[in-house]
């Protein structure tokens, strides 16, 4: 992306954002540049990416969807652009149907639609995840123990993030964990949909289809009682039951850094075009770098642009990654200095 292309793209995205008063102060445009000089190589890697980023409450879902559509119409599919504006679904939100998960024993992708009157626990997990194993065993034990009481009114649904469904079948069959309903995430975007960044992660859904808990299963020490309470129409409390929403903004916001974007990018241009290639062409440096486990100089530049204030904050770091014999490291350090 050239400077003119980045400027044009920022302008178009900014025009889209300015249509939405509730989003414009919460969504930022982030430009990242990673410039890598591998001392044993003969070329500099120089990559620009741009991200439209924000996490918002569920009450803004319609506006978020409309913003994404506007940006796509305005700029199309642009290489290096990532639209990462998320609605944080959690306690207090209606369950949003999970789509495109696949039964672990085969079949077409399905939509996981909640049935009124049922209490659900959806458990995101993996066979390779040690902390997932005890909760999944407990899921099996609860369903076996309370089968007569709960019948079809309580469902525990496992969504595996394993690479293959076959691995899940082998795992649950070996342990007889077949009372929960098991699915493979496959090509579903459900992890993004529910901001699941690690496993285990569970959600409790009440008889009305409302999410009442989201988080680590360890935060619900008595799940049997939770299921009984939810079947009886009672509320549950505690960590992970707080209403979902975007984090509160601090008064006045962040002042950001005082670094000038043009000055920083100019210096990195010099590194990419002059000093970096000079290091790679230095015979002494290139010779010792080939004996080292790692020999890199890396510039990482991040600029966050606030459309509402039209101000940027900049973070710029210069990393030296040198691993190998001391004499080789000393040679590289001297040349870099």
Short description:
By secondary structure, the protein is of the alpha+beta class. The chain contains ten helices and twelve strands.
Description:
34% of the residues lie in helices and 28% in strands. By secondary structure, it is an alpha+beta fold. The chain has two domains: 3-88 and 251-336; 98-231, Glutaredoxin (3-Layer(aba) Sandwich), CATH 3.40.30. Strands 5-4-8-7-6-9-10 form a seven-stranded mixed β-sheet. It has a five-stranded mixed β-sheet with strand order 3-2-1-11-12. The radius of gyration is 26 Å and the shape is globular.
Principal-axis shape equals globular
Beta-strand percent range: 25-35%
Determine the N-to-C terminus distance. Answer: 30 Å
Task: Provide the number of structural domains.
Answer: 2
């Amino acid at each position: 992306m050239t400077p003119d292309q980045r400027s044009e793209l920022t302008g178009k995205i900014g025009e889209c954002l300015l249509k939405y008063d509730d989003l414009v102060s919460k969504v930022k445009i982030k430009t990242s540049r990673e410039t890598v000089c591998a001392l044993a190589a003969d070329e500099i890697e120089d990559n620009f990416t741009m991200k439209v980023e924000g996490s918002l409450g569920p009450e803004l879902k319609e506006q978020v969807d409309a913003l994404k559509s506007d940006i796509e119409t305005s700029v199309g599919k642009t290489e290096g652009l990532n639209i990462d504006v998320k609605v944080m679904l959690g306690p207090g939100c209606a369950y949003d149907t999970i789509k495109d998960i696949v039964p672990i024993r085969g079949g077409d992708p399905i939509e996981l639609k909640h049935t009124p009157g049922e209490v659900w626990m959806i458990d995101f997990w993996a066979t390779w995840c040690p902390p997932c194993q005890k909760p999944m065993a407990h899921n099996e034990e609860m369903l076996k123990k309370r089968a007569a009481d709960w019948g079809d009114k309580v469902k525990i649904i496992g969504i595996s993030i394993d690479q293959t469904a076959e691995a899940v079948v082998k795992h649950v069959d070996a342990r007889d964990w077949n009372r929960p309903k098991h699915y493979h995430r496959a090509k579903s975007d459900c992890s993004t949909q529910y901001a699941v960044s690690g496993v285990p992660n569970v959600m409790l859904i009440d008889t009305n289809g409302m999410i009442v808990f989201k988080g680590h299963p360890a935060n619900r020490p008595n799940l049997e009682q939770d299921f009984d309470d939810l079947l009886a129409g009672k509320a549950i409390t505690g960590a992970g039951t707080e209403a979902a929403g975007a984090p509160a903004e601090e008064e006045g916001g962040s002042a950001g850094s005082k670094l000038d974007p043009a000055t920083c990018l100019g210096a990195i241009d010099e590194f990419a075009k002059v000093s970096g290639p000079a290091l790679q062409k230095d015979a002494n440096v290139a010779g010792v770098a080939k004996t080292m486990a790692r020999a890199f100089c890396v510039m990482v530049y991040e600029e966050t642009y606030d459309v509402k204030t039209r101000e940027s904050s900049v973070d710029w770091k210069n990393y030296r990654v040198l691993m190998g014999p001391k004499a080789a490291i000393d040679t590289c350090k001297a040349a870099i200095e």
